[in-house]
């Protein structure tokens, strides 16, 4: 619950968000917006990504802000100042083989031992959707406790069905037993997810960085450096490209 609104997580893809939205509406609930990391938005009554509807919403917002003497960018920094920066970055490395990918993810689990830090930040928890592990849950299994220098608060492993942030160590998201995906929740509020692409020889990674409130536009350069460091920590601690012979993107 945030500011009176409930946030619901689904797997990536508008089939998941659309179906969940339809389910919630059937229960008499109002769904305002659904979105995914790959830059897609589902506002209003639509049950799929809807750029036309989004254009209307954006135009209405821009018009209202203009009447207040503000731009959309001004409003974005007002939000950052009130709630802190929330920045997302994603990238990938090529993997030489499926066997390499499996070895990499198996090495992260290390008999269910996951990294304890990403860079200098502790991993608060880890969620591994491939094997069903999430150490934010009571019956958590032992994954690395740090990513870099940061403690892992919890882990969600959707491959094996583990999430130690949940009371029963079971993920609330559907399992993904045919693909590798592990999420590390760090003690400082940042999040790192690594997953194997289902269509290409890639290992993808996603970073989410949060800062305390009170930030302004002048802080963006410094916050971007923090995101750069988080990315380095994720690559060095979790992907370990030299160890597994991963190939950088061009």
Instruction: Report the count of strand segments.
Output: 9
- The first-to-last residue Cα distance is 41 Å
Q: What coarse outline follows from CA principal-axis ratios?
A: globular
Strand count, sense and barrel status of the largest sheet are: 7 strands, mixed
Low-pLDDT parts are none
Average pLDDT: 87
Q: What proportion strand?
A: 25-35%
Number of domains: 2
GO cellular component, one term: nucleus
Organism: Strongylus vulgaris (Blood worm)
Protein name: Alpha-D-phosphohexomutase C-terminal domain-containing protein
GO molecular function, one term: metal ion binding
Question: How is this structure best summarized?
Answer:
By secondary structure, this protein is of the alpha+beta class.
């Amino acid at each position: 619950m945030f500011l009176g609104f409930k946030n619901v997580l689904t797997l990536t893809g508008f089939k998941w968000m659309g179906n969940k939205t339809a389910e919630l509406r059937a229960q008499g609930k109002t769904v305002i917006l659904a979105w995914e990391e790959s830059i897609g938005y589902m506002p209003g009554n639509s049950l799929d990504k809807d750029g036309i509807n989004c254009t209307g919403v954006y135009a209405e917002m821009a018009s209202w802000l203009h009447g207040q003497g503000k731009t959309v960018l001004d409003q974005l920094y007002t939000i950052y100042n009130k709630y802190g920066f929330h920045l997302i970055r994603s990238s990938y490395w090529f993997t030489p083989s499926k066997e390499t990918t499996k070895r990499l993810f198996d090495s992260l689990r290390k008999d269910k031992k996951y990294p304890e830090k990403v860079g200098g930040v502790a991993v608060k928890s880890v969620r591994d959707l491939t094997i069903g592990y999430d150490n934010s849950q009571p019956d958590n299994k032992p994954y690395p406790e740090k990513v870099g220098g940061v403690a892992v608060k919890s882990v969600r492993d959707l491959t094996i069905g583990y999430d130690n942030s949940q009371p029963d160590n079971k993920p609330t998201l559907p399992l993904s037993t045919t693909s590798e995906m592990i999420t590390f929740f760090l003690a400082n509020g940042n999040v790192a997810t690594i997953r194997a692409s289902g269509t290409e020889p890639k290992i993808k990674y996603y970073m989410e960085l949060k800062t305390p409130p009170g930030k302004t536009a002048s802080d963006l350069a410094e916050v971007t450096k923090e995101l750069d460091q988080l990315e380095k920590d994720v690559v060095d601690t979790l992907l370990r490209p030299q160890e597994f012979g991963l190939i950088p993107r061009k």
